[in-house]
Amino acid sequence: MKQEDFPIKKEAVEHFAEVNRRQWSKDTGKIEEKYVFVNLSMVRMQMAWVVPKLLYAKGVADTVGAKVIVITWREQPLLDEVCDSYGFTHYCIEKEDKKNLRFFAKALTKVLFFMFRDGTGSGLQKLKIHEFNAGRAIYEDILRTSELSTIRSARNKICIKKATHILWMFYTLQAYCKKHTPVFALADDAAYHEALLSSLFHTCGAKVVNSNQEQEMVLGFDANGNPNRMHLMMQLRYREMIDALGDKEVEQAEQILEERFRGKNGRDIDRGAFKDKRVLTREEAVEELHLDPKKKNVVIMAHTFTDAVYNYGDLFYRDYYDWTENTLALAAKNDKVNWILKPHPTRSAYHESLDSIEDMFERYKKDNMFFLSDEFSAESIKNLADVLITIGSNAGGEFSVVGIPSVIVGKPFYGNLGFTIEPSSREEYEKCLAHIAEVKPLDAEQIRTAKKAFYLRNHYGPAILGTKYDDEFGSLVNEQYKHMGDKMALAYFESNRGTEKYNTQITESITEYMEQHDMRTCKYYTQGVMRAKELL
After folding, report:
1. 409 in helix, strand or coil?
2. Where do the DSSP E strands lie in 203-289?
3. Is 179 inside a domain boundary?
4. Are 457 and 492 members of one domain?
5. For residue 454, how many other CB atoms are within 10 A of its CB?
6. Engineering a disulfide at 134: which of 38, 129, 198, 379 sits with its beta carbon 3.0 to 4.6 angstroms away?
7. pTM for the whole thing?
8. Domain limits for position 508
């Protein structure tokens, strides 16, 4: 599994630090006893992700007169060098935890009490600290960083160890925040243990912002202090904007979708679902997959089992694995349609090999159940599907554009807009699947709305909730990072093989830019200044 590391040549970091110190050497001003926290405990240590956050934090700190503390799991001497060049302090979770063994005892006691009283995976998801959904953070972290794809019972070494570790981290940082008052916090995600830390900073009175190399947005929180997931926030924003869109945006949506099918837009790992793959016609699908041509085709769009299982809000299934398994079990009982399972194209990045979706399919397979392998382009779905079923995958929004109705059980960006079927309970979902053959295609107005939603998603992206970094430096960083992603494909998700080469190249490119420009003029820094002024 991927471990937090900082793969980069020492010489590149030293040169960067030397140039960067000159950028800020003339700084003067009163530094008060208030703090800006930058959470890098979720970020892979790649400079295309790290530098934008540190520049943003610098803008905030310079404006409000605060100190900056950068959080990582492990000690990173080279990252220390980077942080020091900005005048920042490095908070190492493992190092600080070891100073506070009493919090280890507190965490272990809480975990063991839960295991004795409950011990189920579903119960773990409900575990709380104060009103925070700590169990969700723990559950997501366990799936992402272990070889588990689901948790039926948490009474095992992996769950006990990881739950204790996360709670220990939380209690230690909570005590630290009492002495180092956070006024601002930069997150990278609203999932995993980072969601729990964002809740902590929020309740301490800090403004919490999700900012990466592409865009920035201010996180919203529910009444209990839990951060709202991005898809729900986007859905609410789309409802505000969608009526103002017209024919121009509808036409652009159609163009974007055609380019998507050609593999010409989206992330590189997403383009792989379409690019250079064969597209099946309906007739070819009937012949090659052995579909019954007299029946409707229902395509189940699977999710990766282990990637942020609360991205689409609360589910009435335990997780993505549980939903997939139960959906296949329901499909096996209904012979009125052809059921076609489409695995997620990036699942190889999320360790499903021990209990793969292929293995699961074989356990439930009936004569009217079929598997659409990776050799075929996802565009094939446009030709063969009559209905889609998903939690909240992008496919539900994409294929609604061509009139294919989607049954969704989560809260994706395209939900609650009038063109999706949204069961509100497990019972409703089961009833929906039992009568799936009766679902009709989308009408003209629903398709038009779907096109507007698709336009908003692809024209604005998450930046619809905040600000996109599209200035000269932001464009340079994003292009460098895109190049890195294209070259390394999926490999960088699971290991640092080859990362050093590209990380070093990016750092050298950033350093060269800094030698010729005042970094106070870049948008990462100025956006931090702007947000900080809201605190004054």
Report:
1. coil
2. 207-211, 215-218
3. no
4. no
5. 26
6. 129
7. 0.91
8. 469-536
- Does some domain include residue 367? yes
Of 168, 191, 218, the one marking the end of a domain is 168
**pLDDT tens for the 536 residues of the chain, in order:** 345 678 899 999 999 999 999 999 665 556 778 999 999 987 667 899 999 999 999 999 999 999 999 999 998 899 999 999 999 999 999 999 999 999 999 999 999 999 999 999 999 999 999 889 999 999 999 998 898 999 999 999 999 999 999 999 999 999 999 999 999 999 978 889 999 999 999 999 999 999 999 899 888 898 889 998 888 888 889 999 999 999 999 999 999 999 988 888 776 667 778 888 899 999 999 999 999 999 999 999 999 999 889 989 889 999 999 999 999 999 999 999 999 999 988 777 677 666 789 999 999 999 999 999 989 999 999 999 999 999 999 999 999 999 999 999 999 999 999 999 999 999 999 999 999 999 999 999 999 999 999 999 988 877 788 899 999 999 999 888 876 655 554 454 445 555 788 889 999 999 999 999 999 999 999 999 999 999 87
Other C-beta atoms closer than 10 Å to the C-beta of 533 total 12
- Is residue 354 domain-shared with residue 428, that is, in the same domain? yes
Structure tokens that stand for 403 in this block: 């009139």
The total domain count for the chain is: 4
Residue 380 and residue 492 share a domain: no
For residue 498, give Cα distances in angstroms to 77, 257, 491, 501: 20, 33, 8, 6
Q: Which residues pair with 211 in a beta bridge?
A: 216
> Do residues 70 and 158 share a domain?
no
Q: Which residues contact 56 (CB under 8 A, 6 or more apart)?
A: 186, 209, 211, 216, 524, 525, 527, 528
**531: CB partners within 8 A, 6+ apart:** 59, 60, 184, 207, 209, 216, 218
Q: How far apart are CA 521 and CA 39, in angstroms?
A: 24
24: in domain: no
Same domain, yes or no: 301 and 443: yes
Encoded tokens for 248: 């121009």
